[in-house]
Design a protein that fits this description.
471 residues; 3-stranded parallel β-sheet; 20 helices; 9 strands; binds zinc ion
Length: 471
């Protein structure tokens, strides 16, 4: 007899009985609300083609760098998980074998959000009732595979079953958005929108930058070797993205530095960047200038701007060389916002019509920088606890550090930021439970009345994301 897989009704709620009772009542108000997912990285092709997901490994392991990261840290080779090598070298091609490797290491995920999310997926979506382990791996694999063969497990059916009201994907300005166009034509009522992520054409240190900018010129008929043509091309692609539902842009720069440089310097920097001759400090100035330009364009076209800096991407050079990007080797770096954002805020911070959502992986900035900034500038909002902090303790810390300065209404609700489609309900459920747990403590400390807490809980779970992202 194997250990049972159970989801406790009170998971993540306070153990204090008074607080727990309030948390239960608040959660009852939000648990069934539709999911608004304004930022994520699912593949629009899934919804455009609506083909069945092929197998459990491809569905649950392949898109999830949280899983790779932990297994790799404990000596599991990425080849054993079937991740293709850049040099085409041999890797595990049997999906079931890769699943077994994962299952026998399931204990490594104890105490991590991955464990919470995947237990939720296995239990709620696939009806699994025994704990994943080396012994149960094959049985659970077969159970999931049998589900995936059924029509009710196709992408669109799952989208509807999950109660997703709107889901945003993320694409490069060079993307022709064929899947989004197909979705528009399909007549399906599920709402999937794109997001404008221009890093490949804004970052002189991005792979193939000059070729990317040349391609941007071809797509738009602009001369992108000139500063004015380059900006016009960026604006043109924003309009194209907006025509396919985009309401937001997304900027994953290494830092939050912004600049407001004279035009002559912008022109010179673009020339150097296209020639591949920028120094790192110049690349930083160029990217920072572009954030300010993006804010100006947002004011004109109404798109919400997201800035999530502070990640050293692909920290491990041998993993980058052998397996490419997004393999779990991204590490947070210390991030500064107060001086960094100032040039942009000097120009646009007082614009209530502009919304700039700032994320962080540097928790020390919540109370010292982000809450005071967002608690003052009308254009600024704080994004949810993100990535490494998309976790119960991360969310608790986030609310504790920012609420007294920025309140609830300078935040923008939750976003799951995930590539792992089946985990979306699980991730939103964790956020809803943690927000209810936080509010329950404040209710029992008589810092907020329960009727107000109920309203806040609904705002955090649903209304704030819709409003902030204009969805
Ligand atoms: Zn993201």
């Amino acid at each position: 007899m194997h250990a049972e897989l159970r989801l406790h009704e009170d998971r993540l709620f306070p153990s204090d009985p008074d607080q727990r009772a309030v948390a239960r009542r608040l959660y009852a108000e939000v648990r069934e609300l539709p999911i608004v997912s304004p930022h994520g990285h699912t593949d629009p092709r899934w919804f455009a083609d609506d083909e069945p997901f092929s197998d459990p490994t491809t569905l649950l392991l392949a898109p999830d760098h949280y899983i790779y990261r932990m297994l790799y840290s404990q000596g599991v080779k990425l080849e054993e998980l079937g991740i293709p090598r850049e040099d085409g070298g041999p890797v595990e091609t049997d999906r079931r074998e890769a699943w077994r490797r994962f299952a026998e290491n399931w204990f490594l995920f104890r105490g991590t959000p991955t464990r919470l999310w995947l237990d939720h997926v296995l239990h709620e979506l696939f009806g699994v009732r025994e704990r994943l382990s080396a012994e149960t791996a094959d049985r659970i694999y077969d159970q999931i595979a049998a589900c995936l063969a059924k029509p009710e497990f196709r992408p669109r059916a799952l989208f509807e079953r999950f109660g997703i009201e709107v889901l945003a994907t993320t694409e490069s300005p060079l993307d022709p958005l064929i899947h989004h166009q197909k979705l528009r034509r399909s007549g399906w009522k599920g709402r999937v929108v794109t997001t404008y992520r221009p890093d490949p054409v804004l970052d002189p240190e991005a792979t193939g930058f000059a070729a990317n900018v040349a391609r941007l010129g071809e797509l738009t008929g602009q001369d992108t070797s000139t500063w004015s043509g380059y900006l016009a091309a960026l604006a043109d692609r924003r309009r194209f993205f907006a025509s396919l539902g985009a309401t937001a842009t997304d900027h994953g720069h290494p830092s939050a530095a912004t600049f407001d440089l004279p035009r002559s310097e912008c022109e010179a920097l673009l020339g150097k960047a296209l020639a591949g001759a920028v120094m790192p400090t110049e690349a930083e100035r160029f990217r920072g200038q572009l954030l300010t330009e993006m804010a100006r364009m947002s004011l004109e076209d109404g798109m919400v701007m997201q800035i999530h800096p502070g990640v050293h991407r692909s920290h491990n050079p041998s993993v980058l060389r052998d397996f490419g990007r997004d393999r779990g080797a991204d590490i947070p770096v210390q991030t500064e916002y107060v001086r960094g954002l100032k040039p942009l805020l000097d120009r646009f911070g007082n614009e209530p019509r502009l919304t700039i959502i700032v994320f962080t992986l540097d928790e020390s900035t919540y109370s010292r920088e982000l809450a005071p900034l967002a608690g003052h500038y009308p254009a600024l909002r704080i994004g949810p606890a993100w990535w490494f902090y998309d976790s119960p303790e991360g969310m608790r810390f986030y609310r504790e550090r920012i609420t007294e300065t920025a309140g609830f209404y300078n935040t923008v609700g939750f976003n799951d930021d995930t590539r792992a489609f089946p985990s979306i309900p699980a991730r939103h459920d964790v956020a809803r439970r943690m927000d209810c747990a936080f509010l329950a403590r404040w209710v029992t400390e008589h810092r907020i009345d329960e009727d107000e807490a109920r309203e806040v809980a609904v705002d955090l779970a649903y209304r704030l994301a819709k409003r902030a992202y204009k969805l």
